[in-house]
């Protein structure tokens, strides 16, 4: 793609021109390497619908980053230079977007930019956690170990998150299908049967009248209900984008009975894992808390970690700061205190990570084992009640005739 830009050079003069790059991100990196301060950059080409779809589907996945981190670690262990590593991987990876990004990183390295800074110019692929871990590896001279740490962390994070999400897909799908079928029956089937019952002149039981009332409501006002649900969903989606909305919805997420407990353990595992990985890599406690808050992916826990960070800056111990927040369980407070007293906080948090990972796995397994019987009972009661309310009066009518 061709981009036009306006920028200011080192002498303070305005510059404008064009630059060719596969993405805007790569174009910006190329201009920054020329020591230009960009004020405006725009694409001169309009993406077609097909190009937009292909660009969406060619995004960089977590699996791509895990494999990439493993390859980088292996090449560092083989004493290959950083520049050659990124040039080699840029030519080898199948993902076009990732290849372009690695090429841009290679260009930055050739210009003398540190690896962490080169990676930080691509925040959509390499987040703050990843960049800070690499920076710590550069400072300690243990880059191969750092990239292995990153691959392990991303692998664990993906596994535990996907397992929790997959456990919830089935019940949500079943509930949606159930309510969809019930709505269709109330809108299409029940009105025809209710007409027969009303024409018969017989006394209709109260539960049948309730079902007919629901059916009439769906027929007359169903479209408004659908519009209201769509509008409500759109409002929640927009509300969730605001800071207050994220806090409210994320707090609700960890407050739902049983499901909330599962998510709490998931986020605690993520906090302990990211915190321990950074401490073991030489990142300072304050910086580790700040980065953990950015990667936990829950506004409620991010707020807790931000407050803990402020308390630690003010001279508090991590365990005492944790103890002030009910979202942090007693076992995590106690284990953190032991880690601080023994000077092995990173290893203690690694143990906590394993504990909460097992807890999440056990909670998911329990949830999966309960879902099927609960769904069967739920569906059976719903369909059975609806059928009984309709078929019993018809049976009585046939008996009279």
From TrEMBL:
<keyword id="KW-1003">Cell membrane</keyword>
<dbReference type="InterPro" id="IPR003004">
    <property type="entry name" value="GspF/PilC"/>
</dbReference>
<comment type="similarity">
    <text>Belongs to the GSP F family.</text>
</comment>
<dbReference type="InterPro" id="IPR018076">
    <property type="entry name" value="T2SS_GspF_dom"/>
</dbReference>
<feature type="transmembrane region" description="Helical">
    <location>
        <begin position="210"/>
        <end position="237"/>
    </location>
</feature>
<keyword id="KW-0472">Membrane</keyword>
<feature type="transmembrane region" description="Helical">
    <location>
        <begin position="167"/>
        <end position="190"/>
    </location>
</feature>
<protein>
    <recommendedName>
        <fullName>Type II secretion system protein GspF domain-containing protein</fullName>
    </recommendedName>
</protein>
<feature type="transmembrane region" description="Helical">
    <location>
        <begin position="374"/>
        <end position="395"/>
    </location>
</feature>
<keyword id="KW-1133">Transmembrane helix</keyword>
<dbReference type="Pfam" id="PF00482">
    <property type="entry name" value="T2SSF"/>
</dbReference>
<dbReference type="InterPro" id="IPR042094">
    <property type="entry name" value="T2SS_GspF_sf"/>
</dbReference>
<dbReference type="GO" id="GO:0005886">
    <property type="term" value="C:plasma membrane"/>
</dbReference>
<feature type="domain" description="Type II secretion system protein GspF">
    <location>
        <begin position="69"/>
        <end position="191"/>
    </location>
</feature>
<feature type="domain" description="Type II secretion system protein GspF">
    <location>
        <begin position="272"/>
        <end position="393"/>
    </location>
</feature>
<keyword id="KW-0997">Cell inner membrane</keyword>
<keyword id="KW-0812">Transmembrane</keyword>
């Amino acid at each position: 793609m061709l981009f036009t830009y306006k920028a200011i050079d080192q002498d303070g003069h305005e510059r404008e021109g064009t630059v060719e790059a596969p993405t805007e991100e790569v174009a910006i990196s190329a201009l920054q390497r020329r020591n230009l301060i960009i004020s405006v950059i725009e694409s001169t080409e309009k993406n077609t619908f097909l190009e937009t779809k292909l660009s969406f589907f060619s995004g960089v996945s977590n699996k791509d980053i895990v494999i990439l981190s493993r390859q980088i670690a292996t090449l560092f262990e083989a004493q290959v230079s950083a520049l050659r590593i990124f040039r080699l991987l840029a030519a080898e990876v199948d993902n076009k977007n990732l290849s372009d990004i690695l090429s841009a990183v290679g260009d930055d390295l050739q210009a003398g930019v540190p690896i962490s800074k080169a990676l930080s110019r691509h925040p959509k692929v390499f987040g703050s956690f990843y960049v800070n871990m690499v920076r710590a590896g550069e400072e300690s001279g243990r880059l191969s170990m750092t990239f292995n740490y990153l691959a392990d962390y991303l692998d664990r994070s993906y596994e535990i998150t996907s397992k929790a999400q997959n456990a919830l897909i089935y019940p949500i799908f079943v509930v949606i299908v159930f309510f969809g079928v019930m709505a269709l029956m109330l809108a299409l089937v029940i009105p025809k049967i209710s007409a027969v019952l009303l024409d018969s002149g017989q006394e209709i039981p109260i539960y049948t009248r309730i079902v007919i009332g629901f059916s009439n409501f769906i027929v007359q006002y169903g479209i408004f209900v659908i519009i209201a649900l769509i509008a409500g969903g759109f409002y929640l989606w927009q509300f969730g984008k605001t800071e207050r909305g994220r806090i409210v919805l994320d707090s609700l997420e960890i407050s739902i009975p049983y499901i909330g407990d599962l998510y709490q353990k998931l986020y605690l595992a993520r906090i302990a894992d990211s915190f321990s990985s950074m401490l073991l890599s030489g990142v300072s406690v304050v910086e580790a808390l700040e980065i953990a808050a950015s990667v936990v992916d829950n506004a409620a826990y991010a707020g807790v970690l931000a407050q803990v960070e402020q308390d630690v800056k003010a001279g508090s111990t991590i365990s005492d700061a944790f103890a002030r927040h009910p979202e942090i369980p007693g076992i995590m407070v106690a284990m953190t205190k032991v880690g601080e007293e023994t000077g092995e906080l990173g290893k203690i948090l690694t143990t906590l990570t394993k504990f909460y990972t097992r807890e999440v796995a056990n909670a998911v397994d329990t949830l999966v084992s309960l879902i099927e019987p609960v769904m069967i009972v739920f569906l059976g009661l719903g369909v059975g009640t609806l059928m009984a309310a309709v078929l019993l009066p018809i049976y009585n009518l046939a008996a009279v005739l």
